[in-house]
Design a protein that fits this description.
alpha+beta, Alpha-Beta Plaits, five-stranded mixed sheet, 2 helices, about 25% helix
Length: about 90
């Protein structure tokens, strides 16, 4: 099972995407993260369930300059992602 995350708050322009991707890579997760036009950040992560939970907990805090208001997590079917590959999308 993969997780789709929608993160709202002050999460653009504060290094959130890069920090999220670095944390996901450290946890050996696959997926992507991108900014949305509405100011939120969206991500899809796939991999070990415990690592996914750890990333979701990190997402609720984010990097030091971020202010996270909410993280909405939805379970989705596993995607066709390469193991260990994590992209930052524009």
């Amino acid at each position: 099972m993969a997780k789709h995350l929608n993160i709202t708050g002050l999460v653009q322009g504060v290094g959130y995407r890069a920090s999220f991707a670095a944390r996901a890579r450290a946890l050996k997760l696959s997926g992507w993260v991108r900014n949305r036009a509405d100011g939120s950040v969206e991500a899809l992560v796939q991999g070990d369930a415990a690592a996914q939970r750890a990333l979701v907990e990190w997402a609720r805090r984010g990097p030091a300059l971020a202010r996270v208001d909410a993280v909405i997590v939805t379970d989705v079917d596993d995607m066709q992602l390469k193991d260990g590959e994590f992209d930052v999308l524009v």
